[in-house]
């Protein structure tokens, strides 16, 4: 392939070199991953060597290696001794949709590269609106988990979720040691469809305290509904609300239209 630096804009390259709470290798990994997922780097293309990446992006070889290790761990590239590293992800345009595999991988990756403090993990009776969405009875319970995620000691996200249909009991320690999606898979939930709504709101005193900001400060609010398929029908199994500190978290989606 041509010089990999030529496929990125000046803005993307500058963002890579700016001061940020996320590690440099993770920013490089994200830049390369986005290019693979959106088809800029084609399936089968040979990736540059770690030394070439280091020279192109002005990073250390260790940083380049960690970024490539992350891509390999997610099966986006394959390394073969004597043959180099090649892309193994086949981009397929979707009609005004983000590929679910890319979205779920990004969610899991963010979870693995941030710290989590689990405030609550307990089966409780959900609010009426959540019970209706999950299609469970008035006396039924769902697993309620409340978490705060942070990087370098700075909290960036407050997560509150209700989950139905888990095959086994889950503990607070489980959520402290593994991403939720990994736990879901281990306990019998297979997510087939995700719907997200993003809005903004002012921080309540409780949210402000958890996210280290001021009451009334703007927050990014995301509601993520995750569905599982049962035969010909899909049913909601997870209702998640997230509140993000906008100075510590950015939400970006690359959408492609099927021509």
Automatic annotation (TrEMBL):
UniProt domain HTH gntR-type: residue ranges: 22-90
PROSITE patterns per record: HTH_GNTR
GO molecular function: DNA binding; DNA-binding transcription factor activity
Annotated PANTHER family: GNTR-FAMILY TRANSCRIPTIONAL REGULATOR (PTHR44846:SF17), MANNOSYL-D-GLYCERATE TRANSPORT/METABOLISM SYSTEM REPRESSOR MNGR-RELATED (PTHR44846)
Keywords: DNA-binding, Transcription, Transcription regulation
Keyword Lipid biosynthesis: no
Taxonomic superkingdom: Bacteria
The species this protein was found in: Halioglobus maricola
Protein name: GntR family transcriptional regulator
Lineage: Bacteria, Pseudomonadati, Pseudomonadota, Gammaproteobacteria, Cellvibrionales
GO BP: negative regulation of DNA-templated transcription
Keyword Transferase listed: no
